[in-house]
Design a protein that fits this description.
Length: 403
């Protein structure tokens, strides 16, 4: 039996009742879907603050309780192996079988395998029938399978993804699925695994935590709420693909072709980011009028950035929405306008996450991922693709209107 819970319209839980102890836990979640603050209501009916979680992207780093701070020591998947207090004393530890079934645990565990939330079904000490909440779906670690099929379906370039109930394409040692929608392959080293975890933001439709429960109401911050609404609208307005057409596959193929075709001129040093962007837009059927001059030639990068800003065929979107749209196969153009009018700016397209074979060049800001055409044609982090920093204009993102 799945515990009774209260959720937003898109299935994101904001409260759950533990039938084993009769307590109710209410969550204030961030835009990544992870709990940031937890409240409890006991048998007396009164609410009390339980803890605040401190995170680095998806990875839990520490929890703040009334009794003090506890630090989480996680492996490359995000599984908490030990929890210590400020003095270094071990408060809890855990080990897991490959597909997430707890092998050995001791102490109170607020998070479990790969950092997922676990729901005890019958007893608090037996785990063989417990479930993990992965937001879009429930995962049953005893069988290594989800309880419902993958709503995203599969991709031709990754045949294992057509097994719609399999967890992370049957590769649980090297991958996680924090959203329940797509396996994310991790890198070999812990440092790069942490960088990858920072990129594992889960783009749900609407993560506005609005809840009225015993006189309590929570709202996301206004800017975050606005971005969440935009993401929800983008999800609702995206037209379904025609029969036999996969928009993600089409976008990825166009980007791959552009990286092979538009290479830097070794003699002049000239790059062709503007021509590559136009070619990708043409390949996926996106509007091209704001990208070309009167003769149909690609505008220079600075001119293209200005044209996109003034266009009624493209709308500006946030960085979070940009990645969410690209993950659905929608063309999103990243544009940086050089303040030096005699120099060239830079344009590129946002790359979907989780493409097999992609090895993004990491930077301090991972998302959105950029399909970069420049000195080197490769998948890059945002800060590796554009000259961001003090005194430089920001990178702006544009998506076709109605997408």
């Amino acid at each position: 039996m799945v515990p009774r819970s209260a959720a937003t319209g898109d299935g994101e839980r904001v409260a759950v009742r533990n039938h084993l102890v009769g307590a109710v836990a209410a969550f204030l979640r961030g835009l990544g879907g992870n709990p940031l603050r937890v409240y409890l209501r006991g048998g007396s009916g009164s609410w009390s603050w339980s803890r605040d979680d401190v995170r680095l992207g998806r990875l839990a780093m520490a929890s703040v309780y009334a009794s003090g701070v506890q630090y989480v020591h996680s492996d490359h998947l995000g599984s908490p192996r030990k929890i210590t207090d400020s003095s270094g004393n071990v408060k809890a530890y855990s080990d897991f079988y490959p597909f997430g079934l707890p092998a050995a645990t001791n102490g109170i565990q607020p998070r479990w395998f790969a950092g997922y939330e676990l729901e005890h079904q019958n007893t608090a000490t037996t785990s063989t029938d417990d479930l993990y909440f992965l937001h879009a779906r429930w995962y049953f670690p005893t069988m290594g399978r989800f309880l419902s099929p993958d709503p995203v379906r599969g991709k031709p370039q990754s045949p294992q993804s057509f097994n719609l109930y399999a967890y992370v394409q049957n590769n649980p040692i090297n991958a996680v699925d924090p959203s329940g929608l797509a396996a994310i392959m991790l890198t070999g080293s812990r440092e790069r695994a942490i960088a990858s975890a920072m990129a594992e933001l889960d783009y749900f439709g609407s993560l506005i935590a609005r809840m009225v429960w015993s006189g309590m109401m929570w709202f996301a911050l206004p800017q975050q709420a606005q971005e969440a609404v935009q993401e929800a609208q983008a999800s609702a307005e995206e037209p379904p693909p025609t029969q036999g057409e996969d928009p993600v596959t089409r976008l990825v193929a166009a980007q791959d072709q552009a990286r092979r075709t538009f290479r830097r001129d070794q003699d002049t040093g000239q790059t062709y980011c503007n021509q590559a962007t136009l070619a990708i837009a043409q390949a996926v059927g996106a509007p091209t009028a704001p990208l070309v001059d009167a003769q149909g030639r690609a505008l220079r990068a600075n001119q293209m950035a200005q044209s996109l800003a003034n266009s009624n065929q493209y709308r500006q979107v946030s960085d979070r929405e940009a990645q969410a749209l690209a993950n659905r196969g929608v063309l999103v153009i990243a544009a940086w306008q050089n303040p030096n009018s005699t120099a060239s700016g830079h344009v590129a397209t946002v790359r979907p996450q989780g493409v097999p074979g992609d090895r993004p060049v990491a930077g301090s800001v991972m998302l959105p991922l950029i399909n970069n055409i420049g000195r080197r044609n490769e998948i890059r982090a945002l800060t590796q693709a554009f000259p961001l920093g003090p005194g430089n204009p920001p990178v702006l993102f544009y998506a076709p209107v109605g997408r």
